[in-house]
Amino acid sequence: MWVYLLWLLCAVFSALAIAIDMRSLGATKVGLSLPTWGLVCTLVGPLAWVPYLVLRPTARQQLIDAAWAFIGDGSHPLSTRHSRLKALRQVGLIGPSIYRICLRSMNAGMSSFELQSIEEQRKDHE
Questions:
Q1: Is this structure's pTM higher than 0.85?
Q2: In whole angstroms, what is the distance from residue 29 CA to residue 36 CA?
Q3: How confident is the model at residue 18, as a pLDDT?
Q4: Which residues on adjacent β-strands are paired with residue 30?
Q5: What is the pLDDT of residue 112?
Q6: CA–CA distance, 91 with 117 (Å, rounded to integer)
Q7: Which residues partner with 33 through β-bridges?
Q8: Bridge partners, residue 29, by sequence
Q9: 64-79 per-position pLDDT tens digit
Q10: Three-class HEC string of 73-116
Q11: Whole-angstrom distance, CA of residue 14 vs CA of residue 18
Q12: pLDDT recorded at residue 106
């Protein structure tokens, strides 16, 4: 009896952890939809993490690629790309982790003067 209760408890925590991780990515599907992952967790318990962790890197990369396709490349002004990235985050199309990754890579090659001017533009628009 305790084994079944422990298995069910692990299944609930696994489903909850997958839901939190999908939300941090901003993904509606990582191979399967969230309700389907809940069902998989109920059936196989903590073993559901194995296929989820196999599918997660691909879904993460697809989200990053889609964000960059919308944001644009270096031919667009930096302020425009920052505005687009911020819009994606505010609308909920990307999660906080994808936002931080794109922001870091966008700011990687900039001087502190450029970063400061972008921050001033953000404050002016808010």
A1: no
A2: 10
A3: 92
A4: 32
A5: 46
A6: 24
A7: 29
A8: 33
A9: 889 989 988 778 888 8
A10: CCCCCHHHHHHHHHHHHHHCCCCHHHHHHHHHHHHCCCCHHHHH
A11: 6
A12: 85
pLDDT of residue 111: 44
Q: How far is CA 62 from CA 8, 51, 68, 75, in A?
A: 32, 17, 10, 22
Unique residue bearing structure tokens 């969230």: 34
Q: Which regions of the chain are under pLDDT 50?
A: 111-112
Q: What are phi and psi of 93, to 5 degrees?
A: -75, -25
Amino acid at 93: L
Tokens 């199309």 correspond to what residue? 93
CA dihedral 92, 93, 98, 100 (to 10 degrees): -50
Which residue reads 């609930």 in tokens?
12
